[in-house]
Each structure stands twice: as C-alpha cells, then as structure tokens.
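Q: Got one fold?
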Amino acid sequence: MNNLATVYSSLGRYSDAEEICLKVLEIRKNIFGEEHPDITNSYNNLAEIYLSQGKYIEAEKYYDLALSLRKQLLGENHPDVAFSLNNLSTLYAAIKRYEEALSYRIQASHIHDKLISNVFAFSSENDRLAFIDKIRGNFDLFLSLIYQYLPNSQEAINSAFDFILKRKGLSATSLTAQNQASYNGKYPHLADKFHQLRELSNQIIHLTISASQTQNLANYQTNLNQLQNQYDNLQKQIATQVPEIQLSKQIPNREAVASALSANSVLIEFVQIDVFDFQAIRAKGEIQWRSPFYIAFILPAGKPHAVQMVDLGEVEKIDELISKFRLQASDVNSQTLGFKKSIPVKPKLQIKQYNPSDSIQLSKLILAPILEKIDNNCQKIIFAADGNLNSVPLQILPIDETGKRLLMDEYTVSYLGVGRDILRSNSDFTTVTDNPIIIADPDFELSAPLQTEQQKQHFNKEFIDTFDSQNLHRTISTKLLGETVAKKLKDAQLYTGKEALETHLTNGKCPKIMLIATHGLFLPDTEQVANPMMRSALALAGTKTWLSGGILPENAGKGIVFAQDIANLNLRANQLTVLSACNTARGDIKIGEGVFGLRRAFAVAGTKALVMSLWEVPDRTSALLMEQFFDNYQAGMDAIEALRKAQKYIRNITVKELRESTLGVEILKELLKLRELSAQTQIDCHQDDKPLAHPFYWGAWVCQN
C-alpha cells in the first residue's frame, strides 16, 4: 500500500495518496501500537504528501511527530533522526523560518558526521564513493539554504564553510590515511594485510591491461571482479582497525585552517551545488531543483570569523567559457601560432597574438567578484577548486580589460584539493629520504623479442590502441632538461634512455626531489577501463615495446606507470615532484571529490608539492621553463614562487635571449622548422620580439602544494 501511495503522489493524486497513508497508519497502530519505527515512517510519508501540496501546518505536525518518536525509539544520533531533522529544515525554509531551518540542518549534519565515520570504518574505497554519492543531496540542500536565504548572515556563512571543510574530498582524505597507515609503522599487526592490499592492487593493474578480445579469456571480467572484491574486502578489514581511515580523528574547522594560512594569504574554496528552491510547490508544477551554481568561500589568514561567500553564477555558463578559454590558451595549431619561413635564406618568425577575449569574460565571472572582497595587503591566493574549475590554471586569467595583466602578476597562486589539506601533517612518523632522482628521455623501445600473435592478443586492445595513438617519440629537450637539472641538484641520480625505468619509481625509495620528464598519457572514460586511476599514466622506458606486444626486460616492469601505481607508493618525505609531461593534471572530475588521476595519486602518496600541466605542452619550451624553475628552487624559492618566476620568464623571453642558450636555440629551430640555426643565421624578426608569449607555451603549469 505504501508503494501505491508513492505512485499516486508522483502522479499528483495527493488525495488518494493521503487516504492510503492514513489507512496504513491505522493498520500499523492496530498491529504495533502507538510506539514503533513503522509508525514514524507513516508520519513521515503523510508529511511528505502535505509538503508537496504546500499544506505546511499539516506537514509540520507529522514531521514533528516522526522526529519526536524517532528520538524516543532510536536515540538522538540515529540516521532516521537526521532524516527527520533535514525534513523539518526543508519545511521551515519553505515557510521562511530560515534560522530554524539552518539549526535543524546543522543538527542533522552532526549525526551524519558520526554516520560517515561508522560507514568508513567498514567500507572499501568504492563503498565510500557510493556512500558519498548517496548523501550528496544533503550537501546541496545545506548550502542551498544559506546561498538563497541567508547570504548576509555571518553565522550562517561560517557554518556553511565548516560544513564544506568536513564534506568535500572525503574519499581522497580517507585513502590518504590508508596509505599513510600502511607505511608509518603504527599498525605492525596489519603489515601483512597492507602488503596483500598492494599485491592485489598490482594484480588488478596487470589484469586490466592484459584483457583479451579472444574467447579463451572470456571470463576476464569475472576474474577482474573477483580480484576487485578481494581488494574491497581487505580494505574493509583494514578500515575497522585504523581510526584515521574512519576520519574519526580528523575534525577540521575554519579556526585551524585560518591559523595555518601564512600571513597575507587567503584561501578560496570553490563548490559546485545543485540549487534547491525550498518554496517551490510540487503540486503546482513548480520546479524545485534549479540549475547548478558555482559558489566561492573566502577565508583570510588569521580571520576565521570573517569568511565571505560569493555567488559566481550558473555552472553551465561558466563551464562553456572554460571550454572556450582552454581552446584559446592551449592552441597547438602551428598556423594559429603563426610560425613559418618566408624564404630559405632568412627565415621569418611570425607571431600571432593571443586573443584573451574568452579568458577576460571567464575572469569577470569567477575572479572579479572574489578580488573585490580580498584585502589590499593580500599577496598569496590558495585555490581549492571544484567541478571543471579544476581544469583552469587560474593564475593566467587576466584581471584587467586589456588582458595583459594577469592574476599571477599580482599574486602568488597555488592549489589544494580542499582547504583542510593545509592542515595535513606527517609529523607522526619519519620517512628516510633518498637522493633526488631524475627520470628523463625514456627509450620507449627496449630491445626485446616480439611475442607470438596469440600472446600479443592477451592485451586490452582498446586500452593499448588508445595509448598507442599518442605517437610517443623521444625529444632532445627532455634529455637536455634531465642533464641540466641533474647538475643543479646535489647527489641527484639521473636515469635516461634505457635506464628510465618504471622500477626506479616503484622500488620503495622516497626521493626528496623527483623530476619525471616524459610523455603523460590520459585515456578518456571507457567501459573497458572503469577505474580512472588506470587511465592516467606516465610513459617510461619500454612503453612502445609493451604496447606492441613485446617482452620487456625483467627490471623494466611494464614500461608504463599508472596513477594507481603511484597511489600505492610512500612519498611522505618527498618535498617536490615535477611532472614535465603533457596532461599530467588531467583526469576524471567528480563533483566534490576532485580529479581522479595522477594529481590525486601523488597527493594520496604524500608528495608535498606537485608541479604538473593542464594541457599538452611543447617539449622544448617546457624544458627551458623547468630549467628556470629549478634555478629558482635552488636559489631558495618555494615551489610556488619558483614556478611563478619561471612562467614569467618564458612569457617575456626575447628572441635575442633565446639565441643565447642551448635550449633556446632548440626552441627557435622548432618554431622556424629549421634543422640548424647558427649564430650567423639571420631571422626576419625583431630581437626583442617575445615568441613564447602565448599561454600555450607556459600557462598550463600549476603547483598543487
């Protein structure tokens, strides 16, 4: 009968639904008496029917009855009590009792804090992600209430920010805790289980990439599911014994975050929410769920009670501008960038200016409203993005009408997954750091005999075909970069060519500084490879051999390192990792949970600072940028400032300056399509021209710190 009432309600037959619910309530009282959990469900169902019609007095009566009885029967902290509190909050928002509505939402959120800890205590990562999806609606409702009806209440805005700090990016935080617990020595009795977990992860990786299209491995998916189930079950066993995974010891608040921010800095926390109109009446056909919006919360250093909330506008409009901006900024079309030769004797360098029109419009929407509220003495901005804002290097957006003055010209800019990450501490255990390592210019074709055709079919064809289409090739610039940086870093170990192996990353060592200069690979979503951490990778020595079905030397691993591999490493003492490769910051974007790919993997593994790119970058120019970056870093700058200075250097470098360095000459040869460029070669251009001013050359780089 309850199901029938639900159907009637969905069809707008509210009188029929009400009649059935009243009958069910009467039957339940006759069977169970006045005090039983099923009675509370009937009260709630009746209240829902009345709320849908705008009959608020009747709805409040039955919501109150449900809440009171649930507290009596189930206790103050039961999930059903939170459900009732949220329902009453929705009702109070509908009748404009906003402060009461917020109070009930906050009470419900405290119950959910405990529920999250309990669920995470017995769950795998997949279970956690599914649970986060399940409670996502409460996140949207909480923020919708404040965004629409309490935008001028400082207390409400503070509460919203506290709520975001507790909810955003939960799965990554829990997975990071699992990784840390597996290496910190606090749980020696779980050492075998952690080892088994890593072994199962490796088996899943190898099975994923060895999927066959032939009938003799038709049970591939069954085998993969069995391994995944074993992995999930082991994660659950570990979670029950590691409080950090349950997040029970992590209670972030804005006071702690504000105190951790350095002087003259500000945290900008972005959120994407689906907006709910509490005052829309469903029975009248009024739309309750509106288009999603982006909102920014501003937390100044040392001022926890001065959080500001900024409405940035509809997601659809902003995301459209993001796509246009990325196309403009990452334009790799040689004709668009305008480099060609006019006559063989005197090659001509033609430079097409960057058109910043879309970036100006994007900046007006997402930066201008924020900058208006930032103190004049602010020098550093830390962004914690959400949604497609994760794909924007915000520091290169213009902050004037001409498009020439950029955010990075006025502020130092860095990125976090979520604001509470600034509190992350690794002081509870010490990891011995190893010498810096540099992996550059891998030889993608290691000498090895080919497998038979039958053996070669034992690879995931779609997986390999997609990666194989990346047209992997060696470039002189990555070798030059590796050799140059190796000279700058004391005791650095340089691995190039056939020695640029995966095993140097996965050998259990934790280098203080790490540079990987190669090709980054990113595979869009595909049914055959569901795990996004298996669709982001770095190509190392032997990658082409592996892709073609060849046999690699035992010490070469599989020739390619996936984000999933990285997430299993211990990089807690790693101070800096630089990925001088294309698309290393890309991945699957999950609202509220960040980017699933290499950037998530290195964060989970514990890297303090990660420098990476948001689109395909030119090899030779990137090598010069990285050379400058390490010069700055060695001079005492932190990674954020070192990157900022390096980007400015590339943006402003002249033809004359390019001709004065080895890498600069290589860049000019590439731009002019020349095999040789001597000191006597004349170029048809001005010596003070800036051929790399287009953000394609330098704008993709960001620092996650």
The chain has 29 helices and 16 strands. The chain has four domains: 2-150, 174-246, 254-423, 437-696. The chain has a mean pLDDT of 86. The two ends are 56 Å apart (CA to CA).
